[in-house]
Amino acid sequence: MRRISGTSPYEARIGYCRAVVGGGLVHVSGTTGPDPETGTFPDDVAEQCRNALAIVARALEEAGSGFDKALRVTYILPDRRDFEACWPILAETFGANPPAATMIEAGLLSPGMKFEIELTALA
């Protein structure tokens, strides 16, 4: 088993890592989309979606995987009405290899967070 750390300040505070590779799978922790330069959350949900996907992409790459090997994703948004703005971005990201997916409406850790993604992929 191999653990992949990210840059989120929550990893050390809460006690988790960005991803774990084991048993032929990559399990990517729930990932939100702060601005990579400022660490703040953009007001635009689509921008947060893009930022979160970039973080996930780095973890998958480090694990030797990619979005084309995604098996399952869970999307979590505080407001389900925001999800539609993410659809084109997600469709482009997964292309011809879409994973099984679930969208859940729930509160996130910080009020500025509008999008979170959790993903499992083949290693």
UniProtKB/TrEMBL annotation:
Pfam families cross-referenced by the UniProt entry: Ribonuc_L-PSP
InterPro entries in UniProt: RutC-like_sf, YjgF/YER057c/UK114
PANTHER family tied to this protein: BLR7761 PROTEIN, YJGH FAMILY PROTEIN
Protein name: RidA family protein
Organism of provenance: Pseudoroseicyclus tamaricis
Lineage: Bacteria, Pseudomonadati, Pseudomonadota, Alphaproteobacteria, Rhodobacterales
